[in-house]
Amino acid sequence: MLEVAEVRSGYGRLEILQGVSLSVAPGAIVGVIGPNGAGKSTLLKTIFGYLAPFSGGITLDGESLVGLRPDQVLRRGAGFVAQAGGLFAEMTVHDNLLLGGYGLPSRREAAAAVDAAYERFPRLRERRRQQAGSLSGGEQRALALARALVMRPRLLLLDEPSAALAPRFIDEVYEAIRALNRSGLALLIVEQNVEMILGVAHRVFVLDLGQNAFDGEPAELRGTDRIRRLYLGESRRDIQVE
Amino acid sequence: MESLVEFLIQGVVLGGLYALFAVGLTLIFGVLNVINVAHGEFFAVGGYVLFAAVVLLHVPAPLGVAGAGVGAFLLGLAVYPLLIAPLNRRLGRRPAGSLYLVLTLGLSTFMQSSLLAIGGGDYRQVPPLVRGILEIGPTGVSYQRVLVLGVATLLLGALFAFLRWHRQGLAVRAVSQNPEAAQAMGIHLARIFSLTLALGVGLAGVGGALMAPLFNVYPAVGFPLTIKAFAITILGGMGNLAGALLASLMIGVAESLVVIVVPSQWQNGVAFLVMIAVLLFRPQGLLGRRAAR
Would you call B182 and A99 a contact, using CB atoms and an 8 Å cutoff? Predict the structure, then answer.
């Protein structure tokens, strides 16, 4: 459904992505890993329209996303969850969810979609009047996911969903990701937590210095010493790939 | 005692006008990070529209006031796409606030020159929209001032309700908190920026119309108010609407009461004395949050 072909992108004149290609099949979970500075977040921001690619193609179900703004990409069926959730911390849980449905054509549709989000994440209903910034880390990620689902995307782009979370919350977030995928949602996940992403992804891409360094199934990556060394680095043995 | 009550009432009325002006300025700063130096010129536009409507065209006063608000709103709609967006595009990012300051200073001067060219340099007088005195115990206040306070209260109430409950109001608040995340909600930033600017200067336009019968109308009538509104914005907490409202009332009342104890020449300096004190002792303002390190 998503095809990224030879994309070059970056900030100002600084080219971070140097011809990256990847694809996401319908209903698949695709992980993107790599060392800091590899261009993982830049890739998501380019796909979602925050950054305009210098060259290359990005299509969603055959329709080009190049040159579109984030709100236009969203209306074409791709949602985005920023690192740390990108919540409106001073607004209530309910207002955050209502904003998730900003692009829906009517209030009634938005209300129904918000209700559906509460069904999926019942704890958020209990917290609906609470400020988003006062939720626990795990609840904040749940809210960010729930909010992104209000627009019923076909593809969800997640930027480091486990970042800065305690281990028990990471498990909760990944359980939610599995559940979403079982319902047919495709996910493209940029992640530093290698173990978690290899546990859920159907396909993994490794980026290094803005270029593709690996493309294959998680099992292949686990057996590839060269790749492990390439993106983990000799001095970063603290992150283990079994 | 009588004069104290009278001055207090005058202060609340003045505070209401300041609020109409400063809340708009604060809204614009909170959402766009733009300190709109041209805010006072939209106030002046409001005054001129009312003058043209009531004195020249003999249109009913309520329509004139509404026209002033709508006129300023429509002019405000053009500011983002014609001035701010091209600057952002040219730089490839949102620039530092100082560039916006210079940009809107240019707009302020241009608008003053335009008003001078169109309306002339004379002081224009507008008759009171309502006549008579409302007697409150031993003292009284003109219905014109009561009107200013009433309309300011209504409009500010409507603005707060809009921001709290309306879909576009939620979007305005979302953009002020996290523009990037707001885009991920499907919010078109440029539209919200334009709407916010138009709302902010629209309030100034109504303020200009309501005050026209109390002060004369001339091209630079709003500029001193802009400078005072900066002080109010800092006192309330940069970008904090409730803070701006509170600070407006405080400054209005303080300015009104201060003449009881010191010569009236000091009156205009009060706001700035308070501003300096706030900057020295509580730089985040009354309701603002301390900036994160």
Answer: yes
Number of domains making up chain B: 1
Q: Which of A134, A128, A173, A181 is nearest to A154 (CA)?
A: A181
Q: Which residue of A90, A99, A108 is the best one to mutate when testing the B interface, meaning the one whose CB has the most B CBs within 10 A?
A: A99
CB contact under 8 A, A79 and B185: no
Does the residue B3 lie in any domain? no
| Inter-CA distances, A21 with A56, A210, A220, A229, B260, Å | 9, 10, 19, 22, 75
Residue B129 lies in a domain: yes
Q: Name the nearest CA neighbour of A26 among A162, A203, A215, A187.
A: A187
Alpha-carbon distance of B17 to B212, in angstroms, equals 12
pLDDT values of chain B reduced to their tens digit, one per residue, 293 residues:
667 888 888 889 889 989 999 999 999 999 999 999 999 999 999 999 999 999 999 999 999 999 999 999 999 999 999 999 999 888 877 777 788 999 999 999 999 999 999 988 889 999 988 888 888 777 778 888 889 899 999 999 999 999 999 999 999 999 999 999 999 999 999 999 999 999 999 999 999 999 999 888 999 999 999 999 988 998 888 888 999 999 999 999 988 888 888 888 888 888 788 888 888 888 888 887 654 33
Q: Measured between CA atoms, how close is A126 to chain B, in angstroms? A: 20
Q: Is residue A164 left, alpha or beta, with left meaning phi > 0 and alpha meaning psi from -120 to 50? A: left
Q: CB neighbours of A171 closer than 8 A, spacing ≥ 6?
A: none
SS3 A23: strand
Is B54 contained in some domain? yes
Tell me the C-alpha distance between A110 and A97, whole Å: 9
Taking the CA of residue B184 and the nearest CA in chain A, the distance in Å comes to 6
> A102–B167: do the CB atoms touch at under 8 Å?
yes
Does the beta-carbon distance from B184 to A95 stay under 8 Å?
no
Here the ipTM equals 0.86
Domain that holds residue B62: 16-221
| The two structure tokens encoding residue B71 | 């006129």
Query: Who contacts A74 (Cβ-Cβ below 8 Å, separation ≥6)?
Result: A80, A103, A151, A153, B184, B185, B186
Give the predicted TM-score (pTM) of the model. Answer: 0.88
Residues forming beta bridges with residue A205, ordered by sequence position = A32, A215
Q: Do the domain assignments include residue B279?
A: no
Cβ–Cβ of B177/A74 closer than 8 Å?
Answer: no
Q: Give how far A71 is from chain B: nearest CA, Å.
A: 4
